[in-house]
């Protein structure tokens, strides 16, 4: 008999047979499509199961898991680094998806309840049931008087065989609608890791202050981000009331448009949503929950967060801005010349990404164009089911939970962006 509660698991030892069954079920779970393409989730689940089987379940706390599984220092701040909570939430969701499939419904169950890091184990349900023989309708009850005939059911066989197919058809149609309503779409899968992270959802927008970067064409994202930080410090320390009125609260229309597109996706989560400007928000605030970062060259947070990634922004406003491929740094094919007349600019480029940020300890999404049109197109792309389905195809269904970064291009007509197209993808 398997212990079935966290309390019993710490008091009642598991038999060798129980351990063998639980480990076998764990391997089936970890080799399923829900776990096999990830490293983080199987590692944590395996650790929690093994510790519980060895009688150490009571020691499974957030800090212990952060240190033992994710290599965090013993005194790390669990409030600002929720890697354990985020990962456990995703594991819990994937376990539910696994057992939701009918082929696994009768298997031994491994469950992870909300608020606990101690797995629970429940025996497999027995599919076989004792068969009770039905009474024969054409045999008289011997205990009844001979003169009393046995009453037979008055159901018409024709009626039965007419009603049953209709009922099956209705059930099939209803099941089809329910199945479609509960089947995750590519858009659901794209945003699932982001929504699994706890805390309020933040949109971080850049202000519309005009900035000029050094004329060196080799300007790096770090250098631009540093310039923005200096601008932030200058504005806060010595800026006049008029500076704050004209620069500190204004945002670009295209950035707001992108945020509105993405809010249509985020709004279905019924979670707190807040908007912050890049100049004025701080690291602690961004660590409280998942964040969508909008804008590229005018948002120092975006520039800092994509610095470890393959695709980055570079250039200067005296020459051109471009998206740099760190594996092919000399290639400047994705570029925009800011000195060109608006009417002559017919193409823009953008970076989109979904990553687990080590700096923030959160899952973040980035939608950042070289120009305003690129950011607007990126926001539209990340909220469009058909375009996200193409992104999933390029990433590979087996990598749907991995971090990724992609470069988009969009045709521009007098500053208005058309539908974005994928030109490059990098999966991490």
UniProtKB/TrEMBL annotation:
Provide this UniProt record's keywords sorted from A to Z: Membrane, Transmembrane, Transmembrane helix
Please tell me whether the keyword Transmembrane helix is annotated for this protein. yes
Q: What is this protein called?
A: Adenylate cyclase
Q: Which residues cross the membrane?
A: 159-179
């Amino acid at each position: 008999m398997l212990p079935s509660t966290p309390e019993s698991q710490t008091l009642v030892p598991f038999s060798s047979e129980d351990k063998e069954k639980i480990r076998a079920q764990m391997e089936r779970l970890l080799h399923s499509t829900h776990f096999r393409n990830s490293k983080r989730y199987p590692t944590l689940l395996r650790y929690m199961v093994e510790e519980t089987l060895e009688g150490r379940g009571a020691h499974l706390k957030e800090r212990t898991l952060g240190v033992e599984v994710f290599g965090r220092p013993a005194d790390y701040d669990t409030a600002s680094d929720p890697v354990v909570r985020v990962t456990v939430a995703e594991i819990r969701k994937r376990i539910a998806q696994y057992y939701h499939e009918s082929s696994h419904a009768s298997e031994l169950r491994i469950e992870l309840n909300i608020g606990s890091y101690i797995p629970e184990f429940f025996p497999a349900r027995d599919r076989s049931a004792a068969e009770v023989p039905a009474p024969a309708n054409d045999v008289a009850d011997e205990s009844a008087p001979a003169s009393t005939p046995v009453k037979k059911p008055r159901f018409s066989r024709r009626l039965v065989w007419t009603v049953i197919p209709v009922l099956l058809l209705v059930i099939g149609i209803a099941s089809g609608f329910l199945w479609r309503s509960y089947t995750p779409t590519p858009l659901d899968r794209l945003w699932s890791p982001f929504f699994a992270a706890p805390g309020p959802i933040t949109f971080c927008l850049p202000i519309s202050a005009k900035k000029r970067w050094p004329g060196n064409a080799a300007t790096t994202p770090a250098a631009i981000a540093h310039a923005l930080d200096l601008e932030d410090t200058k504005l806060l320390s010595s800026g006049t009331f008029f500076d704050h009125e004209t620069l500190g609260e204004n945002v670009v229309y295209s950035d707001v448009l992108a945020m509105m597109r993405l809010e249509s996706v985020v709004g279905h989560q019924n979670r707190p949503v807040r908007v912050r400007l890049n100049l004025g928000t701080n690291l602690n605030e961004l660590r409280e929950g998942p964040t969508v970062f909008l804008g590229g060259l005018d948002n120092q947070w975006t520039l800092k967060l994509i610095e470890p990634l393959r695709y980055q922004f570079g250039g200067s406003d005296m020459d051109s801005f471009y998206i740099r491929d760190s594996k092919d740094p000399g290639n400047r094919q994705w570029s925009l010349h800011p000195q060109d007349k608006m009417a002559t600019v017919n193409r823009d480029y953008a970076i989109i990404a979904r990553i687990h940020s080590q700096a923030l300890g959160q899952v973040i999404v980035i939608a950042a164009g070289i120009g305003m049109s690129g950011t607007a197109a990126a926001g539209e792309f990340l909220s469009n089911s058909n375009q996200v389905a193409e992104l999933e195809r390029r990433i590979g269904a087996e990598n749907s939970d991995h971090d990724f970064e992609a470069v988009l291009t969009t045709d521009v007509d007098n500053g208005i962006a058309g539908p974005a197209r994928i030109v490059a993808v990098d999966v991490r």
